[in-house]
Amino acid sequence: MNTSASPLAELARSEKPIGVGIIGLGARGSWAERSHLPALRAVPGYELRALSTSSKRSAELSGRKHGVPRTFGTAAELAACDEVDLVVVAVKVPHHRELVTAALSAGKGVLCEWPLGNGLAEAEDMARLAHDRCLPTVVGLQARSHPVLAHVRDLVADGYVGEVLSTTVVGSGGAWGATVGPGDHHVLDAANGTTLLTVPFGHALDGLAYVLGEPGELRIHLASRRTSAVDTESGQPVPMTAADQVVASGRLPGGAVVTFHYRGGVSRGTGFRWEINGTEGDLVLTAPVGHPQLSPLTLEGGRGTSTGLAPLTVPEPYLRVPHLDPRADAPAYAVAHAYRQFLDDLREGTSVVPDFTHGTARHRSIASAVTST
Predict the structure, then answer these.
(1) pLDDT at residue number 339
(2) Phi then psi for 127, rounded to 5 degrees?
């Protein structure tokens, strides 16, 4: 979708800051507080001007804590604020469509966290509305904005591994294991759309597609080995209807084999390991947990006559947000790079950061590939 003539693009090209309003920026460790807030403050060209939460009182508390001047008790009030140019939706998935629709109806650009919708139909509705109104959008598939993945993409394209033969991803979800925190019960209910399949697997699939190309012949199998988790505070069991095992396979353009295995909970062995194996070399990415979009990533490689792996440093040009540390600021790191690239897209008319159309396609690729539960 070409949004280069939108008011938001014109504002970005004017070098004036884009006014941002965040729906869901709380004061008690929310995702927006851990990721979007530090990301926006690290990227020149944005100004956080407003926030809304579930009530006026909680919004005022959050505004005082974070130094945000305008606070609202409803998303509709935030979307109507003249000082807000870009609305960030960072709340639970079942509320995405309602809040995104309010922002788009107010004529605002929108960044919505992933999953875009609670299922494909909702994502299609939001993408259609954004397209009809010619409004810029971003979906929070930020793994593809991570500097490590950008570097790996270029290494593969430049022939570091030769011809890619296969690639394998193994990841642990963190959630969907033996225990659950008192504030995280919603992720255990498949009806809420925040599952092992949609979140860690979805982010990893999108990052892999960015680096190696979109997998074809994708087949996804789900299994539920656990049917409940123990609440860490009460000690009581909580029903789990979301699958805790995701196994997928496919073929890359050119024929290379792709395999995934995501498991719920935390493994004593592998948190995240992604191997790219080729005729001339190998690349390996690792992280403490299977969320490449929010974890510190370590890159190693070996090729030619080398018999082992050695650390590979990401060159300086890929590191476009120098004020953030990739480990200490890991939840905000890829998010900040996505915000940086979005500015470039607005100013230059490019479409590098994934928009709602891309998010809908990712929903479709996952939904159409699931073969069993």
Answers:
(1) 98
(2) -65, -40
